[in-house]
Amino acid sequence: MSSPVLVWFRNDLRLADNPALAAAVATGRPVLPVYLFDEESPGLRSLGGASRWWLHHALSRLGEDLAARGAPLLILRGAVAQVLPALMREVGATEIHWSRRYDAAGIAVDAALKSGFEAAGITAKSHNAALLVEPWHVTTKVGEPMKVFTPFWRAARARGAVPLPSPAPARIDGAALEGLRGLAPSDLDLLPTAPDWSGGMREMWTPGEAGALARLDAFLHEGLAGYTELRNRPDMTHTSGLSPHLRFGEISPRTVWHAAEHALRSGVSAASDRDLEVLQSELGWREFSHHLLFHNPDLARTNFNRRFDAFPWREDPAALCAWQRGRTGYPMVDAGMRQLWTTGWMHNRVRMIVGSFLVKHLLIDWRAGEDWFWDTLLDADPAANSASWQWVAGTGADAAPYFRIFNPVLQGEKFDPEGDYVRRWVPELGRLPATLIHKPWTASPERLAAFGLKLGRDYPHPIVDHTVARERALAAFQTLKGAP
After folding, report:
1. Residue 154 lies in a domain
2. Domain residues for 423?
3. pTM beyond 0.85
4. Annotated catalytic residue within 285, 305, 428, 441
5. For residue 482, what pLDDT is reported?
């Protein structure tokens, strides 16, 4: 019997449009799919709690999908450098395929592993399963990394049409697993137990490739039309909700790209060409984040704009806790933070609002927000999480200027005009009319009492005055004048 070829699954937990899996199947040899849970290799960032919950269910679905096609998933645990070479020797494999990573620690682990395999005469091939274009394929005219989104995306699009996604293999010739002892997803202890805080996530999400495709289909039928404007409305359902599926590779960006184009051209969606263009540009921002991370490996810890190394951030544990728990007294901010805690996700417009509030109203270091999102977001991606926080903070590439300070009241009135989003996530304000729901402190105690509300008892007073906070933030920014 011929030796097996290994497929090492990582953040590509799908069968369709998976180049590593396709390459292994194409060899004609038995395929051994492997997932290695590695929290031991140097530099790798441990998953946050929400992401661990998702991974448990994603691995369960992937295992079922692979087994149905004839190749059960082998789940192992430990440091890559020890576990994978030992497995290759045990099964007599001389070829392995995996999908690329773009964080510095992941790249270092993979490069060392590949070098060792090649020295031992083992074929090790990496594939692009996560991106439309590799980070090193888009440069300035002088060959340097891009720092501004618009020219980056223009150059990326100029590279040619996005390739069509490949279908999942109908059948996989699985390698015999006699003698191999793998783990079940439950053995990885990924689920919260004391307490189990995942109820809201279970209600909202269906991890796995089938769940990703179902969510894409629903979005194309119901959300793509009007996406250009309505994607900014958290009180409506015009975002795709695909970010956790993309983060774990349960669906490829190529699949999303071409499915959206087909929906528009076939009449499945009444979307406009502009809706499609904006959706594709959102995928472009994801590409740009990976471009930034690849060329700036410490993006999650170090200011892209090093002038901000001298910024006078405040240490304020009480304010940070109020922000984390959705108790700032600003309804739009609190609604977003409670949505995040309950569902593991937050609307993108609201992410900008809560991020701006943390770094500008509270003057708390953006890295504290990045850490919180890493632990609580299902889609906490090494590239998007850090790049997005730096964008909001004004410290990043092509960032919103620091002096652009969102007014959470005006943002709420503009993007949640009837207050439906706030009512869902801050139910103690549910009886307030739209004219008050984003600024309850402007009403008299007597009027609030008529709606069954007392500030300081049922809902907190604002922890900071917007005008005072804005002036303080601008004064802090002025201290950077003249900084190198």
Report:
1. yes
2. 306-478
3. yes
4. 285
5. 63
